[in-house]
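Exercise 7. Given the encoded structure of a 402-residue chain, write a plausible sequence.
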């Protein structure tokens, strides 16, 4: 058994005093302003002068802004969250230049997440109490689960969601004991069931989701009817945000339990890369929601597999996983989406999704046998095609070449 040192975030709700809430609201506002001004400066430098501006330059800009009369209020909040905002912007640009993300966008007062990040110089952690810079009293945190023994946070992120709830996330060092598991599993993403496993198990969406989604639609309709900018509309918007928060909370809990179980039971987990599929499909609401769930599922699975020393294999969807018989390898001719089960020539009756999950597992195991972490490339398909083509001349022997 080995142990792995990891960085792990622990998130809790907290209840700020009036003064703390005001200080945090001010900080969120300054973080947003600094981020947007730095983004504007970087965009301008690039479009007008083809200059790349880096973090250090934006940091110098910030120092200058603080000295002006109009922006002197930036000095009233802790400087660390403002610096962190510039670092986040730097990361956004790095991702953009590496073609991993789109061009960074401005933070909006209404739509963007309200948050501020504090590093060790901007908070005090003593006797299990957390006090942020510019605050006299520690935060009133609800310790819903314990921090690891002796843990001490290196970064603290404070945020407020659209439903008005306050959260603090503490990034701590933790040690994970790695015990090998015996299982292997292929996982297929679906629409009617959230996931289907190669073991035949179907994982459904959280029990209340259908109900919650109806409530969400109802609340959204109610909000649309209210007069714009009125107190009634603000109340209706809060109601929408509350239902939304309930849905995302339940989904996250559900996915956490699910990924923890899958990683505990299995040494090798195989999933398919859905990014290719996402580019071609049309977007329905149900699809958008299931895609969001899948992305979250994959992110959780990736870091938990890493923590626990599991082998997570991502296969390209280069093979027809639904149409291929997992028993005999024959290819079914056509497979409309509404066909939930089918019978192969070999006599096997397949559940469409379970069969797909089994094929995904087989593809993943083939990849691991060839060498760790190697993904089947499109070239494999092409070489498969060319070997198929080589057979063609035989089939056409005797036909005169014109
Ligand atoms: Zn078959």
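Solution.
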């Amino acid at each position: 058994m080995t142990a792995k040192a990891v960085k792990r975030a622990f998130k809790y709700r907290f209840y700020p005093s009036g003064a703390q809430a005001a200080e945090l609201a001010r900080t969120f506002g300054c973080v947003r302003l600094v981020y947007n001004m730095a983004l504007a400066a970087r965009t301008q430098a690039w479009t007008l002068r083809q200059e790349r501006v880096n973090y250090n330059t934006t940091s110098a800009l910030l120092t200058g802004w603080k000295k002006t009369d109009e922006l002197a209020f930036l000095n009233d909040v802790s400087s660390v969250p403002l610096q962190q905002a510039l670092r986040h912007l730097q990361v956004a640009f790095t991702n953009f230049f590496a073609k991993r993300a789109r061009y960074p966008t401005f933070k909006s007062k209404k739509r963007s997440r309200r948050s501020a990040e504090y590093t060790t110089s901007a908070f005090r952690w003593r006797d299990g109490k957390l006090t942020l810079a510019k605050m006299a009293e520690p935060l009133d945190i609800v310790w819903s689960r314990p921090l690891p023994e002796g843990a001490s946070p290196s970064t603290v992120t404070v945020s407020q969601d659209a439903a008005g709830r306050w959260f603090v996330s503490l990034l701590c060092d933790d040690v994970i004991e790695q015990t090998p598991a015996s299982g292997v599993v292929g996982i297929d993403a679906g629409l009617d069931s959230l996931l289907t496993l190669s073991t035949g198990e179907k994982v459904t969406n959280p029990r209340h989701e259908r109900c919650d989604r109806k409530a969400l639609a109802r609340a959204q309709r109610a909000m649309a009817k209210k007069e714009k900018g009125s107190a009634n509309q603000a109340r209706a918007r809060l109601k929408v945000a509350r239902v939304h928060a309930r849905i995302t909370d339940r989904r996250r809990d559900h996915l956490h339990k699910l990924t923890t179980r899958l990683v505990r039971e299995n040494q090798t987990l195989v999933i398919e890369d859905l990014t290719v599929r996402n580019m071609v499909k049309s977007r329905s609401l149900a699809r958008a929601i299931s895609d969001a769930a899948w992305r979250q599922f994959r992110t959780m699975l990736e870091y938990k597999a890493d923590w626990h020393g599991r082998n997570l294999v991502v296969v390209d969807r280069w093979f027809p996983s639904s149409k291929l018989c997992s028993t005999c390898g024959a290819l079914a001719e056509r497979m409309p989406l509404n066909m939930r089960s089918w019978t192969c020539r070999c006599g096997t009756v397949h559940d469409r999704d379970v069969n797909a999950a089994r094929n995904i597992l087989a593809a993943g195991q083939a990849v691991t046998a060839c060498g760790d972490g190697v993904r089947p490339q499109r070239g494999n398909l092409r070489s498969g095609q060319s070997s198929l083509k080589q057979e063609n001349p035989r089939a056409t022997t005797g036909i005169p070449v014109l």
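Remark. The pocket of zinc ion is lined by residues 325, 327-328, 330, 344-346, 348 (CB under 6 Å). Students should compare their own answers with the one above.
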